[in-house]
From TrEMBL:
The keyword Flavoprotein applies. Pfam families: FAD-oxidase_C, FAD_binding_4. Residues 42-220 form the FAD-binding PCMH-type domain. The keyword Flavoprotein applies. Its cofactor is FAD. Keywords: FAD, Flavoprotein, Oxidoreductase. This is FAD-binding oxidoreductase. InterPro entries: FAD-bd_oxidored_4_C (IPR004113), FAD-bd_PCMH (IPR016166), FAD-bd_PCMH-like_sf (IPR036318), FAD-bd_PCMH_sub1 (IPR016167), FAD-bd_PCMH_sub2 (IPR016169), FAD-linked_Oxase-like_C (IPR016164), FAD-linked_OxidoTrans_Type4 (IPR051914), Oxid_FAD_bind_N (IPR006094).
Length: 466
């Protein structure tokens, strides 16, 4: 696709469409932040940034871009890890973070209608005041809900409650040609044609731009209790997970962690973890409406763990204890980042019974490739976060080793019947590995879907399957 070379005239025309100098950034007024996301290693500056306030503004910009063959990249708060918000072809960035209003709480239908720039943490706080609950719990709470929808974000509560797609009832979407459509709604069941809503969720801004979302809510569980369970080996810890899943007591979350990640978090937060003496841990959370109900639920699971080689079961039933554990778990990413000069991530998902095999394999790769690798993840759904650290490697050494390690790890995930990404998406950085992991026919179908939505390929080009 030949894109139009962006000109000063284009900037002036877009400025006329928006009518606000302060929200149309050009040239030196564009912050370097707009060239990248949290991944950081992929950077391209856009020609212009539009900080949109409404679906109508997004529509106007998209119509102009469509008629003039100018590429457009939508973005929220830029917390992604695969380069999905990077304007690879330059052009226009539409920043949706100022579209941050909570529009309606419908307590009868248990839905919340929001604009895409509302932060995940704001949604949780807002609905809790009404004794309601938005279950998806990705680790980055400063991510926008639009970004969560675009990547079908998962998080730690996915074991019991599912992922973002399970809580999106309806969407307002601006198409690449600028038309505004509404798909889904407040209905609970829907078998009316193709599931367009579910195509948009997880499409990483390549099919349309979400400008409004109707989210499903649940009644708020009154109480949560966590169990921190040390094991002498990672094998014992991970092999216990299928037994837990098969029991009648499904935890809200089942996380695994190793001692190295805990020590890194302790150093980063400057406060001790309740226990750091074991090589491997499971962290389980249970929720319910009373302490007694939760205790009945977790007692059976605690016994399963002890029978499977757990060294102990630490019960965190106070806010202070819960905070000590979960603040450390929440800090793992930042703590690992603080250990090195640069890093990249493998966000693979494998069958639950293959988690231990994959993690042990990363230790072998760490030795054979002479590079540091740290990991943690969601044992309950098989989604692993594997971080490859650059340390003092020069640019050429880093790129060669990184590509080699990623090839090795993704090859292993394919052997274990896994997939490239569990929750962070493909974006720009993981495209080669998606092409290797999926059949050619599947990639062609994805390209056909992209073509149907965006025949000029102007919306977030160069991402996912392109």
């Amino acid at each position: 696709m030949e894109y139009k070379e962006f000109s000063v005239e284009d900037y002036k025309n877009i400025l006329d469409l928006i009518g606000d100098n302060d929200r149309v950034l050009y040239g030196e007024n564009i912050s370097e932040d707009y060239s990248r996301d949290e991944l950081g290693s992929v950077r391209v500056m856009p020609n212009v940034v539009v900080q949109a306030l409404s679906a109508e503004e997004v529509s106007k910009v998209m119509k102009y871009a469509y008629n003039n063959n100018i590429p457009v990249t939508p973005r929220g708060s830029g917390t992604g890890l695969v380069g999905a918000a990077v304007p690879i072809k330059a052009g226009i960035v539409i920043d949706l973070s100022k579209m941050n209003k909570i529009l309606e709480l419908d307590e009868e239908n248990l839905t919340l209608t929001v604009e895409p720039g509302v932060l995940l943490m704001e949604i949780g706080k807002y609905v809790e005041e009404f004794d309601l609950f938005y279950p998806p719990d990705p680790g980055e709470k400063t991510a926008t809900i639009g970004g969560n929808i675009s990547t079908n974000a998962g998080g730690m509560r996915a074991v019991k409650y599912g992922v973002t797609r399970d809580y999106v009832r309806g969407l307002e979407v601006v198409l690449p040609n600028g038309e505004i459509i509404n798909i889904g709604g407040k209905v609970v069941k829907n078998s009316s044609g193709y599931a367009l809503k579910d195509l948009i969720v997880g499409s990483e801004g390549t099919l349309g731009i979400v400008t409004k979302a109707v989210l499903r809510l649940l009644p708020l569980p009154k109480k949560a209790i966590s169990l921190l369970i040390p094991f002498d080996t990672l094998d014992n810890a991970i092999e216990t997970v299928p037994k837990i899943i098969k029991s009648k007591s499904i935890p809200t979350a089942i996380e695994f962690m190793q001692r190295a990640a805990i020590v890194a978090a302790e150093e980063f937060l400057k406060k001790p973890f309740p226990d750091n003496s074991s090589d491997a841990y499971l962290l389980l959370t249970f929720d319910g409406n009373s302490k007694e109900e939760i205790e009945r639920t977790y007692e059976g699971v605690a016994n399963i763990c002890l029978e499977s080689g757990a060294l102990d079961v630490f019960i965190s039933d106070t806010e202070e204890r819960q905070e000590a554990i979960w603040s450390a778990r929440g800090a793992f990413l930042e703590a690992i980042k603080a250990l090195t000069t640069e890093m990249d991530e493998v966000d693979v998902v494998v069958p639950r019974n293959k988690v231990a095999e994959f993690v042990k394999f990363t230790h072998e790769v760490e030795e054979s490739q002479d590079i540091r690798i740290k990991s943690f993840g969601h044992a309950g759904d098989g989604n692993l976060h594997i971080y490859i650290l650059r340390d003092e490697l020069n640019s050429e050494e880093w790129n060669n080793k990184l590509n080699n390690v990623m090839e090795i790890l993704y090859k292993k995930s394919r052997e274990l019947n896994g997939q490239v990404s569990g929750e962070h998406g493909i974006g720009f950085a993981k495209k080669p590995f998606l092409n290797e992991s999926l059949p050619k026919e599947s990639i062609e179908i994805m390209k056909g879907i992209k073509l149907a939505f965006d025949p000029k390929n102007i919306l977030n080009p160069g991402k996912v399957c392109q």
